[in-house]
Amino acid sequence: MPARIAVLVSGGGTNLQALLDHFNAGGNPAARVELVVASRPGIMALERAAQAGVPTRVLNAREMGPEPFTDSLLTVLEDSAIDLIVLAGYLQMVPPAVVEKYRGRILNIHPALLPAFGGHGMYGLRVHKAVIESGARMSGATVHLVDENYDEGEILAQRSVPVLPDDTPESLAARILRVEHELLPAAIESMLQTRTRD
Ligand code: GRF
């Protein structure tokens, strides 16, 4: 039985698209995206899910308040019998009760080589700006397990890309995003293979 994935999103959803292409449309039997949860309405990620025929929910933590948000998220995950949660450009904190229940089964993709350039407030172009300002010659993407702290869970996979002398945060972001689209499905597959062997 394919692992049932929920993808949590807040924006464009190109990583979601990579998962839909790899698993749902690509016929890869290891997993399927069965649910997309968005932190706000009207985002491109929701359109991508609808195009692929994947059910969607919008749950806004700020509007709902912490407890109703946690309860609703747990309910939608349970109703869809989700095995694995993937944060792909998700800008809200996963509630502690969800982390606890799905410990070891929540993945995040971060556009830098953790443990550097991660943590609270390190998202979007801010990450790439910080990398360029630091003078680092390499950056990349990291897939890691999610725990109670931002960007601190066990690292599952990383791939590096060069930082070029004339890079802007935008050009570096675009180079890393291309790598993310390969790294994320590959990391999920290898995680699932390891589990099946255990
Ligand atoms: C990616 O760079 C991801 O690493 C970060 O947010 C971005 C999301 O892009 N967490 P997209 O919504 O998947 O296009």
Description:
Helix 1 runs parallel beside helix 7 and helix 6 crosses helix 7 (169-197). Strand 2 (31-38), helix 2 (44-51) and strand 3 (56-58) form a beta-alpha-beta unit. The protein is built from 7 helices and 7 strands. It has a 7-stranded mixed sheet with strand order 3-2-1-4-5-6-7, sandwiched between helices. With 198 residues, the chain is an alpha/beta fold. Helix content is 42%, strand content 22%. The model has no long low-confidence stretch (mean pLDDT 96). The structure holds 5-O-phosphono-beta-D-ribofuranosylamine. 5-O-phosphono-beta-D-ribofuranosylamine is lined by residues 11-16, 88-89, 109-111, 177, 180.
**Secondary-structure element series:** EHEHEHHEHEHEEH
Count of DSSP strands: 7
The rounded Rg comes to 16 Å
Largest sheet: 7 strands, mixed
**Please, how many helices?**
7
CA(first)-CA(last) distance: 16 Å
What bound compounds does this protein have? 5-O-phosphono-beta-D-ribofuranosylamine
Helix fraction bin: 40-55%
- Oligomer classification: single chain
Overall SS class? alpha/beta
Q: What's the overall average pLDDT, rounded?
A: 96
- Shape label: globular
Low-confidence stretches: none
Strand content: 15-25%
Record the strand order, biggest sheet: 3-2-1-4-5-6-7
